[in-house]
Amino acid sequence: MSKPVRAAVMGTGSWGTAFGMVLADAGCEVTLWARRPEPVEAVNSTRTNPDYLPGVELPRNLRATADAAEALADADFTVLAVPSQTLRANLAEWLPLLAPDTVLVSLMKGVELGSAMRMSEVVEDVAKVGAERIAVVTGPNLAREIAARMPAAAVVACADETVAQRLQTACHTPYFRPYTETDVVGCELGGAVKNVIGLAVGIADGMGLGDNAKGSLITRGLAETARLGVVLGADPLTFSGLAGLGDLVATCSSPLSRNHTFGTNLGKGMTLEETIAVTRQTAEGVKSCESVADLARRHGVEMPITETVVDIVHEGKPPVVALKELMSRSAKPERR
């Protein structure tokens, strides 16, 4: 009888905890790592994570620890579920503890500030492992719905298709259906840029601009993502799939989306500081909009919606002024 797959999930936020639950429901032995003792005690004694997923009962084959070495020991999959801008420092700290052949799985949807690296590039840079040891999970995966075991699909991407298939098997449950993909670049860009477009749509919703504006932002946001992706070597078809359109629609239409909610508060007139104060969890697009814009500039790609979000979030430009400037840009063919 083969031994069960072991997975370490590094981070006990809502998505890390929910994906840990998926892995456990699929039959893996899962250890959640938390920096603080409180969530460890809650998970192990009450089978819940009240800070992030209150009321959700976690499986018995999922436990928690504050000891990174204990979590990472002999893990077949090491799932990285920390805020994207903290990945480099955290992974460097864990590096000596990683199991020799573990596959490093990124749940993060962001681009690193300063380096403009995607998360898999940060992993490769820090861990010095080949592409066959790095995988990505992405798609329309709102953590609260998955924690409620509502039906969802996802993409598990790795340059090595056999590794993607292993991960697919490790997280396939009756409510969570993963598809394999080898286009890591496209999958990561879809996840990172959709957070920025989610902010833009939230701002428009907060301003009461209507569904035509929402539909336009989603569609033109997808065009921006694809333009950047093609320049970086992604397959254009990736952006019409779960990692592109699927994730974008879920983020831009759900009140469960942190980025959409953050943008809505900005659109209603709250300041950045006020919005941060009422947001308990990380809205990745708030920082990633700058790094995505930086990445686009480095490659000569126009991303006007992304630049508009940067102007509003980080330059203090009033949304009404930013909207007027965006709508007043010179007219052009749609597919250019």
From TrEMBL:
The residues that the entry says bind sn-glycerol 3-phosphate are K109, G139, K194, D247, S257, R258, N259
Enzyme class, one word?
oxidoreductase
Gene3D superfamilies for the chain: N-(1-d-carboxylethyl)-l-norvaline Dehydrogenase, domain 2, NAD(P)-binding Rossmann-like Domain
Residues recorded as binding NADPH, renumbered to this chain, are S14, W15, R35, R36, Y52, K109, A143, R258, E284
Q: What is this protein called?
A: Glycerol-3-phosphate dehydrogenase [NAD(P)+]
Please give the superkingdom of this protein's source: Bacteria
Q: Which PROSITE patterns match?
A: NAD_G3PDH
Pfam families reported for this sequence: NAD_Gly3P_dh_C (PF07479), NAD_Gly3P_dh_N (PF01210)
Q: Which key words tag this protein in UniProt?
A: Cytoplasm, Lipid biosynthesis, Lipid metabolism, NAD, NADP, Nucleotide-binding, Oxidoreductase, Phospholipid biosynthesis, Phospholipid metabolism
| Boundaries of every Glycerol-3-phosphate dehydrogenase NAD-dependent N-terminal domain copy | 8-163
Give a short account of what the protein does.
Answer: Catalyzes the reduction of the glycolytic intermediate dihydroxyacetone phosphate (DHAP) to sn-glycerol 3-phosphate (G3P), the key precursor for phospholipid synthesis.
* Active-site residues from the entry: K194 (proton acceptor)
The similarity annotation says: Belongs to the NAD-dependent glycerol-3-phosphate dehydrogenase family.
Q: Which InterPro entries match?
A: 6-PGluconate_DH-like_C_sf (IPR008927), 6PGD_dom2 (IPR013328), G3P_DH_NAD-dep (IPR006168), G3P_DH_NAD-dep_C (IPR006109), G3P_DH_NAD-dep_N (IPR011128), NAD(P)-bd_dom_sf (IPR036291)
Q: Which residues form the Glycerol-3-phosphate dehydrogenase NAD-dependent C-terminal domain?
A: 183-322
Quote the subcellular location field of this record: Cytoplasm
Q: What is its main location?
A: cytoplasm
Q: Which NCBIfam families match?
A: PRK00094.1-2 (NF000940), PRK00094.1-4 (NF000942)
For this protein, what reaction is catalysed? sn-glycerol 3-phosphate + NADP(+) = dihydroxyacetone phosphate + NADPH + H(+); sn-glycerol 3-phosphate + NAD(+) = dihydroxyacetone phosphate + NADH + H(+)
Its UniProt pathway annotation is: Membrane lipid metabolism; glycerophospholipid metabolism
Organism, by scientific name, is Streptomyces pyxinicus
EC number per UniProt:
1.1.1.94
